[in-house]
Amino acid sequence: NAGVTQTPKFQVLKTGQSMTLQCAQDMNHNSMYWYRQDPGMGLRLIYYSASEGTTDKGEVPNGYNVSRLNKREFSLRLESAAPSQTSVYFCASSNGRGEDFGAGTRLSVL
Amino acid sequence: GDSVTQMEGPVTLSEEAFLTINCTYTATGYPSLFWYVQYPGEGLQLLLKATKADDKGSNKGFEATYRKETTSFHLEKGSVQVSDSAVYFCALSQKTSYDKVIFGPGTSLSVIP
Asked: A58, A95, B55, B97: which could form a disulfide with A45 (CB 3.0–4.6 Å)?
């Protein structure tokens, strides 16, 4: 039982490059989330998915897109990375009794 | 909208000291309340939770009581250890179709021997 698995753990991009952060959960949770964590700003919700096939914007969606591929997987895509997107990204899932988090992806955009 | 406020950190304590981290919230209705902990270099872990007024959540020696009258959910531990050094997040969740959690800004705790 792996919980929430994120890949990659680390990534360095150049400005303008694109990439996809992958997230999978094996707990049969309906809801999944993407957050970014920046010093002094806590966690900010980027996008969430209440169920397979649905996605909605969170607090800071600009510059990102998401796909809820199936119940297990929820990916986050940066189409054209910017230095302001340097952050630690966390994926989470929930069954309504609190969220389970992945270990995070540390992304640097140069 | 709903929000969570936590005491400013960082907090530095000596080993075996008593810990309190204050948390208050603003929300309609009766949200569920949580404390999460984040150890260096890791993701957040659910530490404890309470789902209704006067409930007490507890785990690993930590406790918090859901106080509806003061809209608070303060985290306490009687005797902290060096291994408790981490960032602690207070959070709430409304029962909606997507169970979204709203986090406080986090309080950094350092415990020194």
From this structure: A58
Mean per-residue pLDDT of chain A: 92
- CB B97 within 8 Å of CB B41: no
- Whether B44 and A43 lie within 8 Å, measured CB to CB: yes
- Interface contact A90, partner B, CB < 8 A: yes
- Please tell me the predicted confidence (pLDDT) of residue B84: 97
Give Dmax (Cα) for chain A: 39
Percentage above 70 pLDDT, chain B? 96
Q: Residue B104 is nearest to which of A42, A58, A100, comparing CB atoms?
A: A42
Question: CA–CA separation, B54 vs B49, rounded Å?
Answer: 12
State the DSSP H helix or E strand holding residue B89, giving kind and residue range, or none if neither: strand B86-93
pLDDT by residue (tens digit) across B48-93? 999 999 999 999 999 999 999 999 999 999 999 999 999 999 999 8
